[in-house]
């Protein structure tokens, strides 16, 4: 079992920055892929970024590419999401999640993750 706890959300003006943290307990995150997702009011949860814990390889949604950076700290068992040049449309609850060890091709991006944090609110004002 693993527990994921996000922190670092808050209110920021457009153009500002925030760094989200996701601390894991219960099991180390090595050998897993960790992802960040977000859900705006009235919208479906969407993929933001992911990182392979072992290789450090990253992948981003087009909407955040060049503005957001996902990273991890092995010693702290923590994954981060640095968000720069924030826009009002980035306003959402942000969730971190751990990907399943094995996935199948028919799974959606969200279905590939089976452990989720409780989320942290990010509000960007114009």
Describe this structure in words.
With 126 residues, the chain is mainly beta. Helix content is 0%, strand content 51%. It has no helices and eleven strands. Strands 2, 4, 5, 6, 9, 10 and 11 form a seven-stranded mixed beta sheet that branches. The mean pLDDT is 94.
Entry summary:
This protein has strands at residues 3-7, 10-13, 18-25, 33-39, 46-52, 58-60, 68-73, 78-83, 92-99, 113-116, 120-125. The chain is mainly beta.
Task: Throw out a few tags for this protein.
126 residues; four-stranded antiparallel sheet; mainly beta; seven-stranded mixed sheet
The main β sheet shows up as:
7 strands, mixed
**Molecular shape:** globular
Q: Mean pLDDT across all residues, rounded?
A: 94
* Elements, N to C (H/E): EEEEEEEEEEE
Task: Please work out how many helical segments DSSP would assign.
Answer: 0
Strand content: over 45%
**Computed Rg:** 14 Å
Q: In terms of per-residue confidence, which ranges show pLDDT below 50 for 5 or more consecutive residues?
A: none
Structural class: mainly beta
What oligomeric state do these chains adopt? single chain
Tell me the total number of β-strands: 11
Percentage of residues in helical conformation: under 10%
Quote the distance from N terminus to C terminus.
Answer: 40 Å
